[in-house]
Amino acid sequence: MTRIVAGTAGGRRLKVPPKGTRPTSERVREALFSSLEAMMDLEGAKVLDLYAGSGALGFEALSRGAGHATFVESDKRAAEVLKGNARELGFGNTTIANRTAEVFVTGEGDKFDVVFADPPYAVSDDELAKVLNGLVPRLAGDAVLIVERASRSGEPAWPDEVEPLRAKRYGDTAVYWAQVRTDG
């Protein structure tokens, strides 16, 4: 069972797509958001949840005060679950894009303050690097990027425009942090 950890929807359950997704554990989300909130104020932030699955990361951000979340999910069934979760939680400040992350990052639109990327473990390092590079024009001036991967995958190849900050392992999961460079 997947629940929102804290905030206005704290304790509420999320439906999870029947197969093909791997929701971020409560333990990892709790640690991730504790670090994120120590780093920045989520109030009003524009959040991008790539490879969204159930939307646990984006909905957690909304519950904690983010102003809008865009969820990108290629699987049609998972996108329908996302829509249902948004409705159930009462979050109207969402956009759900039923397309691949690779296609989404080639488009134009909002700039994001926080980006979560939790690709399936089968997504190659090269594919992920292409998505991260494609995101650069969509990043706000001090945007934070958080990538979740299998511990064995190693750190993502970050675009030159972002600076790696830290990595933390949680069993088989590793979370990598980066932020847009402010040194120009």
UniProtKB/TrEMBL annotation:
<protein>
    <submittedName>
        <fullName>16S rRNA (Guanine(966)-N(2))-methyltransferase RsmD</fullName>
        <ecNumber>2.1.1.171</ecNumber>
    </submittedName>
</protein>
<keyword id="KW-0489">Methyltransferase</keyword>
<dbReference type="GO" id="GO:0052913">
    <property type="term" value="F:16S rRNA (guanine(966)-N(2))-methyltransferase activity"/>
</dbReference>
<dbReference type="Pfam" id="PF03602">
    <property type="entry name" value="Cons_hypoth95"/>
</dbReference>
<keyword id="KW-0808">Transferase</keyword>
<dbReference type="InterPro" id="IPR004398">
    <property type="entry name" value="RNA_MeTrfase_RsmD"/>
</dbReference>
<dbReference type="InterPro" id="IPR029063">
    <property type="entry name" value="SAM-dependent_MTases_sf"/>
</dbReference>
<dbReference type="InterPro" id="IPR002052">
    <property type="entry name" value="DNA_methylase_N6_adenine_CS"/>
</dbReference>
